[in-house]
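Dock (6S)-5,6,7,8-tetrahydrofolate; give full complex structure.
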Amino acid sequence: MILIGENINIMSKSIGAAMKERNAGPVQELARAETTAGMDYLDLNIGPARRGGDELMQWVVETVQEATDRPLSLDTTNQVAMEAGLKVCKNKPLINSISLQPGRLEAGLPMVREHNASMIGLLWGAEGMPRDANERCALAVELVYKANEAGISNEDIWIDPIASPISVEINQVKSCVEFLSMIGEICPGCKSTVGLSNVSNGAPAHLRPYLNRTYMVMLMKHGLYSAIVDAFDQELVKVARGEMPGIVDLVWRMMDGYQPDFSSLSPKELEYAKTVRVLTGQTLYSHFWLQI
Ligand code: THG
């Protein structure tokens, strides 16, 4: 799996101020730490950046490139900022993202070709978030068709079905998994990605990793190609690298209907097993799901 580090993010309490003040030290330190943690790409999230976004994105890209040789994922909805960042990328960049909102495809697709980039195709349509797996399929087909028309090949399209918080809507959590099981047929040759930490948004900070890790394993069952992740969740990185095969096997078997005897599981297996039950909707989510 390709791991994209999410930590350079203007909304973050620790690094947001350094980005706004153009203080290179902390940003470069974080870029180095994410690289050491094993990230394949670094996501540079400058938010909507309505004013001065172009100058900010250019600065962040140049600053980070002095600290790491990893390729970058440029995360902004500001087209002018995206363009400014793409111009200074040394490696093949990933545009994060282009959605199906009116005007976005038309504006974004030419940039992919012009800068020899890859793109994340965000399945967010004219009417907002898709409601189920079928709506995700319809949006994916439209997106890939238009991207192909613009001369972009499927291997440069990373489809993002949009993960949403378990504390908000279990059906959306399930739809995202279901969609991923269909993506190979719907858009052969396309890659996939998901913002994994979305699933645990709203959960207490110390519990978020359990949801993120387990959800990743569930999506891996259907061939998830990449994920935007917390670079410093070491266990998540281990799982993604195939270093915890017993856990992956347990989660995948549970997705196929296996109901393990909880009294026979190790504490680590129990964490994952209980979390699978929550993420598949067999147990109702509450902040106390691990204690039940
Ligand atoms: N799809 C795509 N891009 C995305 C997302 C997606 N980019 C943004 C987001 N979702 C993925 N990135 C993050 C980055 C940080 C957090 C979650 C997702 C996060 N941070 C903590 C918080 O806000 O509480 C900690 C921040 C801090 O350090 O203070 O949760 O879905 N294509």
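Observed: The chain has one domain: 2-233.
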